[in-house]
Amino acid sequence: MNNNCLNILKWTEAQLKYTYDVSLQQATPQELHEALGQAVMMAISDDWSRSKKTRMPNRKAYYFSAEYLIGRLVYSNLFNLGILDEMKELFAQRGVDLAILEDIEDDALGNGGLGRLAACFLDSAASTNIPLSGYGLRYKFGLFKQSFDAEGNQVENADDWTKFGDPWSFRRYNHTVKVKFPDHTVLAVPYDVPIIGYDTSNVGTLRLWQCEAEEELDFNAFNNQDYLRALDAKNKAEDITRVLYPNDSTWEGKRLRIKQQYVLSSASLQDMLRTFKIAHGNDLSRFAEFYAVQLNDTHPAMSIPELIRLLMAEGMSFDDAFNVAQKTFSYTNHTVMGEALEKWPLDLMRSVVPEIVDIICRIDEKLKWEHPGLFIVKDNTAHMANLSIYVGSYINGVAEIHSQILKDDCFKDWYYAFPERFQNKTNGITPRRWLGLCNPELTEMIRQHVGTGFLKNLELIGGLKDQINNGTIVEFNAVKRKKKEQLCAVIAKHEGVMLNPDFIFDVQVKRLHEYKRQLMNILSIVDIYFRLKEGRLPDFHPTVYLFGAKSAPGYARAKAIIRYINRVAKMINNDPAVADKLKVVFVQNYNCSYAEHIIPAADISEQISPAGTEASGTGNMKLMLNGAVTLGTLDGANVEIAQEAGKENEYIFGHTVEQINAVKDTYRSRDIYDSNPDLRRAINTLVDGTVPTDDAQRELFHALLDGTSWHKADHYFVLLDYASYLDAKLQANRDYADRLAFGRKCLMNVASAAKFSSDRTIRQYAEEIWHITPTQY
Ligand code: 26W
């Protein structure tokens, strides 16, 4: 038995004894999590400190991100250390089932794709020895917890994720920095999270800033019995990192958000300047020789003027500081949707970060002098994406089609001025969490056919292609069946719904947004329901349609869609006439940990955004890697998924970008409504009382057919793509009956997923943007 494991066990028991006075067997999941976490932190401490020191003299990269959706760390850390199974065994020998840690909640310091991507990148960089560290914010409350009330409404609850402690970070008070605002100065206190690589002794670092007051308590006020005012400074500082903004893809000009972004920017850069001086001396003109910074969207774009400000404060000229900044930063764009692009009103910004506004205006003058026609500031508003393209080395999109749209469309003028800056970096996912950890059964099956090593070098998974035969397909189908049984147990426990693992599992899991078209999915289900009742789908293979999605709390239409899906689910699930054919489940509180149960069990992956709207998607890759076929449009990374696996192994439908562009000006959804009676009947359930609905669904109905003052009818082309969507969906359902032919498609997806490892993505960032190489320890 591994020595490391026995030590961790011993330390866990010791921690439990002296902090909680309980034995291993008596410990609650939270107590065990705390103690085990601390024991693992002890076990890795030498490697962690050595990793930091080895890196000191070399060029490295920093990921600046307002979000990190890292999920539950305990299993993934043990997994990456290669000791998960042994630890389970050791605990089991002592009568403790490590599965009790399923009760531990996720670290959810992110909203969706962009935050999860940041987490996958850190895992990949650590695992491939690429010198990358993360900087972010330590929100006291992560993404809200979601439940549904009896009417099917989304209910939000605070996610107090450190309530029972946080064993996976160390507070490093000695590296605290000050961040100044006109009316107060706050402390940014760093918390370091180790990023434990897989099959390497390298441990990376994620440094999260937490805001605190310089003076926790105003004693004057306190002595004067003014107890509330005595805490003003404390609250005002702590408010800044109190909560993660739960908006995903709609931008809001909130003053607290400027403060968050500025703290992230300023604290991280101050920290980098400190370490630069230790490692390389005081010649700050060499900053960009040693440091590259990747901006995860524009949320940390204030770093650009902030670095210029900090360098000028050290005596550098504006022009020299500008040049350093330009070489240091690069920017990743994650969305083409106009409403998501950050544009700060200068007045608002000036009231919070006046010096930053001065520098932005100076940069804007320089730009307008060099490139009349381009702008950063327009109508007294700062366009943060433009700033990031101008004062940066590279800008990239996150899938081929998305990067093309950036050049052709969103940033056309910029591409014309700076063509050499535009790149593509197709997203990826870490195969450790999204295969090894969440699907040990499939992992073992793959190992038997291609040998070990594919979790580190996913190219090896391609070896499966030669081995797809009736034998391996039957094996795969058995694994899938087992994962469905496990998911059924989870859903029975959390949702109280009993599902049959013989059903097809058709899943759509992602944030709730109109452009993601969950509405199109549920309308097709309503349509199928009516057809089943009429006996028009005699050979329909029983299917469970599974949804998981959170809506931004203020996004009324998204909430109306959730309510509608829940009410349709209730109607269908309570109808004995279709009980053996159809189930609809909307799981509550979809998050990383839920994804780890759902994704391995899926047969069909719904990726159904109108072409040109989803930048990449990454859930699509996770589902592919676990052997689901994609029912999708030619959008985002779906395009590359179909390329890799072969179009014949996916269900591709709908209009292409070019086709949408060709029809959009003359498109009339009402014509389709009038000519397609089945679709009309489904849409009518939004208003006709078949399903209990209210004004909000009536509004959805009108938005589809009549439009509103801000959008033409059916802005996301639900009716336009509907017929081909339903065709593809029913085709997949028919094909499923041939278990060998369908299983072959699934296995082809698994075998073709190599491209979508975030190890590949991060290597491309390292080579083509940061110009850094792996450092061997
Ligand atoms: C400021 C409001 C706001 C919040 C979040 C604006 C924009 C965002 C993100 C850019 C939204 C996001 O998460 N984008 C997703 O990024 C993923 C990783 O690149 C992609 O796979 C998804 O397609 C994209 O929607």
- The coarse overall form would be globular
How many whole angstroms does the radius of gyration measure?
26 Å
Helical content (DSSP H or I, runs of 4+):
40-55%
- The N- to C-terminal Cα distance equals 25 Å
Low-confidence stretches at least 5 residues in length (pLDDT < 50)? Answer: none
Number of strands: 23
The molecules bound to the chains, other than polymers, are: ligand 26W
Helix vs. strand class: alpha/beta
Count of runs of 4 or more consecutive helical residues: 32
**How confident is the prediction overall: mean pLDDT?**
97
Biggest beta-sheet profile: 10 strands, mixed
Give the strand content: 5-15%
Description:
By secondary structure, the chain is an alpha/beta fold. It contains 32 helices and 23 strands. The strands form 5 sheets. Strands 1, 4, 7, 8, 9, 10, 11, 12, 16 and 17 form a 10-stranded mixed beta sheet that branches. The chain has a 6-stranded parallel beta sheet with strand order 20-19-18-21-22-23, sandwiched between helices. A 3-stranded antiparallel beta sheet has the order 13-15-14. Helix 13 crosses helix 14 (354-370) and helix 21 crosses helix 28. It is globular. The model has no long low-confidence stretch (mean pLDDT 97). The protein binds ligand 26W. The site of ligand 26W has 22 residues, from helix 5.
In short, what is this structure?
The chain is 48% helix and 14% strand.
Furnish the topology, listing elements before pairings.
Blueprint: H1 3-20, H2 29-55, E1 60-64, E2 68-71, H3 73-80, H4 84-93, E3 107-109, H5 113-127, E4 132-137, E5 145-148, E6 154-157, E7 170-171, E8 177-180, E9 185-196, E10 203-213, H6 219-223, H7 227-230, H8 232-240, H9 255-280, H10 287-290, E11 291-296, H11 303-313, H12 318-328, E12 329-332, E13 343-345, H13 346-352, H14 354-370, E14 377-378, E15 381-383, H15 384-390, E16 395-397, H16 400-410, H17 412-417, E17 422-424, H18 431-437, H19 440-450, H20 470-495, E18 504-509, H21 518-533, E19 543-548, H22 556-573, E20 582-587, H23 592-598, E21 604-607, H24 619-625, E22 629-632, H25 638-645, E23 651-652, H26 657-663, H27 669-675, H28 677-684, H29 695-705, H30 718-736, H31 739-751, H32 758-770
Parallel strand pairs: 1-4, 1-11, 4-10, 11-12, 12-16, 16-17, 18-19, 18-21, 19-20, 21-22, 22-23
Antiparallel strand pairs: 2-3, 5-6, 7-9, 8-9, 9-10, 13-15, 14-15
Helix pairs in contact: 1-2, 3-18, 5-32, 9-11, 11-12, 11-14, 13-14, 20-31, 21-22, 21-28, 22-29
